[in-house]
Amino acid sequence: MPFDVAATVVANLALSHDYNVLALDAPQIAEAAIPGQFVMVKAATGHDPLLRRPFSVFEILRDASGRATGLSLLVKRIGVSTGLLYDAKPGDTIMCLGPLGQPFTLVDAPADGWMVAGGVGLAPVWTLAEALVARGVTTTLFYGARRNDELFYLDFFRTLGVELVLTTEDGSGGEQGRVIAPLERALAARPADQPVSLYACGPEGMLAATARTAAAFGRPCEVSVERIMGCGMGGCYSCVVPMKSEGGGFHHVRSCIAGPVLDAAQIVWD
Question: What is the C-alpha to C-alpha distance for residues 262 and 158, in angstroms, rounded to an integer?
Answer without folding.
Answer: 27
